[in-house]
Amino acid sequence: MDRRTVIKGLAAAGGVAATTRLSAPALAQNAKVLKFVPQSNLSNFDPIWGTQYVVRNASNLVWDTLYGTDANLKIQRQMVESEEISADGLTYTFKLRPGLKFHDGAPVLARDCVASIDRWSQRDAMGKVIRTIQEELSVVDDKTFKWVLSKPFPKLIEGLAKIATPCCFIMPERMAKTSPFKQITEYVGSGPMKFVTSDFRPGALAAFEKFDGYVPRSEPASWQTGGKVVHFDRVEWLIMSDPATASAALQSGEVDWWETPLPDLVPLLKRNPNIKVDIGDPFGHVGAFRFNYLYPPFNNVKIRQAIQAATSQQDYMQAIVGTEDALWKPMASFFTPGSPYYNEEGAERLKANSDYTLAKKLLEEGGYDGSPVTCLVAQDQAPMKAMGEITADMLKKIGMNIDFVATDWGTVGKRRASRNKPGEGGWNMFHTWMAGVTTLSPIGNSAINANKSGWGWPDIPEMGPALQSWYDAKSEAEGIATAKTINKIGMDNAVYVPTGFWLGYQAWRSNVTGITQGPCPWFWGPKKA
Amino acid sequence: MLGYILRRILSTIPVAVFVALFVFSLLYIAPGDPAAVIAGEHATPADVEKIRKSLGLDQPFVVRFAEWSSKIVQGDLGTSIFTGLPVSKLILQRMEPTISVMLVTLLLAVSVAVPLGVVAAWTAGSWFDRTIMGFAVLGFSVPVFVVGYLLAYVFGLQLYWLPVQGYTSLAKGFWPWFESLILPSIALGLVYIALIARITRATMLEVLSQDYIRTARAKGLGERAVLFLHALKNAAVPIVTVIGIGVALLIGGTVVTESVFAIPGLGRLTIDAILQRDYPVIQGIVLVFSFVYVLVNLAVDLVYTLLDPRIRY
């Protein structure tokens, strides 16, 4: 065969391929299958044992909750038909909706709820608080259970309804009796979808199939509440660690919905007429860095205040989201912008916005001796990497020395648990971020606890009573007033430093409708043409 | 020969022991804490400690190693810290995609690189030879992920000819399976093609200068017969050696390729396990790869005997 013949043949093959499309990467093929790229790796599926956001988001499909929070931040009944609260506020009696079934066909019973609440409350910050005043959590009959307290706790139902992880998902009793420090081994729930265990490839694929026995509520769906009717027979979670791959897959139509596109790729997606882009979670994300209270310099409140004064939230936020100013807001509070509890009490130093003169003065008053500040920065988490670089620059500008530990999140996770001295395997500060929905109130914001039990072992004696006052508040107005006290105490003591509030995008194919904003991806509502 | 094969297989045991001890020790002293990753951001240090205890991560090195190695001896690679699934099950789930990528890459690389190398040697000094060697340098220089992204952009996003991600099992049909492997194999194969082409050219040049080649031509044999029946056969031993060594390159390369093309193979499993500090999975994969590599070297040694009748064990 001569060269000309070969070239002709190749050209013909190319022409055929171009016209017939070797593989028209199917516009996510089947209208009854939704392909979704989640925010991170789903490697385990126990929402109480592993409290990562991605696990909670997947768990919303499989497990239901007694109460939920709707898009207006109102608590609504979900699995509960009715509740009775005794006049003294000590006894809560809950009655389940009729017809609720688990995926294995067994009815949902009160004992399943009791066991699930018990497991959840051993891990959840608010659940732990309730346990300290719990007298009894018991079954009354198959559909009724009661919770008896030793003192009133007005926020109890709010705790059962919260979206912040861990949520109080209801599991069969046999599963819920697993220690909360061990992983469950089966994934049976009463939610709108069943987990397809046989298809689970941790780190690659998780699949969910519609549960025909699901009994939705009659109200329209709204976030965690209402009639959670899923319009797909199957939902596939395709884990893609490389954002470029996810972007390409969305553009080619191989996936339908991408939860968290990288900000750098959003302009490219916006230019594509087949893709829609919108804000994902209206409550966004909150950046922060936390101090180690055990060792100098941050065992000294003056030095922590110096860092507050030097902080420019604009610098931090622009490092994370770029130049699109609509995507970030300053946050001189421990509560998320948009939350009824948002207030800026005591935040004058933070609002000073990189007042280096004040910062240096506070450093001097605090007796900073030039010792290097061991700063842990996770390089594999984009927001933390960005924040770390801003912090390094800031500390140098105010005359502090820094030991910049560039590592991965796994190492940060281990090292921050160390009580060693900073120069001997310990640390002085680390960066983190939280979903804005967790800092709507003190319920989910464990970082504000300063009872020596959190990361860095913050010790602010007056914070405990202030938080208890919030839990005990009988009205929203009272709660708001208490939140101001909490904010002031936190700011005065710089319990941690919020670096700002930012929003992220989500992106989906234009043939998919019904995707809404929310702190979690909601699979009830979307449909595909 | 059978005795030789058996001895080589048995020799994997001390290798496996050494690798097991080395990897276990390395992971033990490496920073990171799977319990902290599992517990999440909102857990307290006390919660993390309880999880660590429940996973047995608070046990001393000797206890943990003894437990793990006693399971290995019974063929149990342990249980993944994160997923709770047997490590052997996780590895088996991921083997097909990785083996598929490696096999197709190997076939592609050998079938392209060897003829290129032969022709480059035959036309040594010509524009063709220089062009091939130039592309070989490019093949070494351009990272796999860059090639991968370019291929996905051109063939996936512009031409819509091929999928940009994912893997389809062979059980679902040959063409869907092969289609999902074309781009990853080309991306991964370029380095391999460059390597094999260069070695082929170098050894062919040496062989082509030998007297017996001159004799073959003098006898009136056509160039094709001279090149492929006489020269290539004598040049094959070093080429096969490089192909065998290149399997290690492939194993490393699959990690990047599987991430770029979202292929659920052993490479991605390795990366995820390392990032999460899923020690049993890391240990299991390293052991499996060590064993595979020993077997590949054995296969290479056996192929020598087919190529060179003077080699006998």
Plain-language structure description:
The complex is a heterodimer of chains A (529) and B (313). Chain A has helices at 3-20, 53-62, 110-121, 125-132, 156-161, 173-176, 243-252, 266-270, 301-310, 313-321, 348-351, 356-366, 382-397, 409-415, 463-472, 476-493, and strands at residues 33-37, 67-69, 75-77, 80-85, 91-96, 134-141, 144-149, 193-195, 205-210, 234-238, 257-258, 275-279, 285-291, 328-329, 373-378, 402-407, 429-435, 496-502, 505-509, 512-513, 527-528. Chain A has 529 residues and is of the alpha+beta class. A 7-stranded mixed sheet of chain A has the order 8-9-10-1-11-19-12. Chain A has a 6-stranded mixed sheet with strand order 14-18-13-17-15-16. In chain A, helix 13 (382-397) links the parallel strand 15 and strand 16. Chain A starts with a helix and ends with a strand. With 313 residues, chain B is mostly helical. The longest helix of chain B is centred in the C-terminal third of the chain and has 38 residues, at 223-260. In chain B, 39% of the residues are buried. Classes of the chains: A alpha+beta (529), B mainly alpha (313). At the A-B interface, helix 7 and helix 14 of A face helix 3, helix 4, helix 6, helix 8 and helix 12 of B.
Which properties best describe this structure?
heterodimer; A: 529 residues; alpha+beta; six-stranded mixed sheet; 30% helix; disordered N terminus; B: 313 residues; mainly alpha; 13 helices; 0% strand
Can you give the helix content of chain B as a percent range? over 70%
Span of the ends, CA to CA of chain A: 49 Å
Q: How many E strands of chain A?
A: 21
Judged by helices, strands and strand pairing, the structural class of chain B is mainly alpha
Quaternary state reads heterodimer
In DSSP terms (H or I, runs of 4 or more residues), the helix count of chain B works out at 13
The two chains with the largest interface, and their residue counts, are: A-B, 61 and 57 residues
Radius of gyration of chain B: 24 Å
Largest sheet of chain A: 7 strands, mixed
Report helical residue fraction of chain A. 25-40%
Taking pLDDT < 50 over at least 5 consecutive residues as the criterion, the unreliable ranges of chain A are 1-8, 15-28
**Inertia-based shape of chain A:** globular
User: What is the terminal-to-terminal distance of chain B?
Assistant: 6 Å
Overall pLDDT metric of chain B: 88
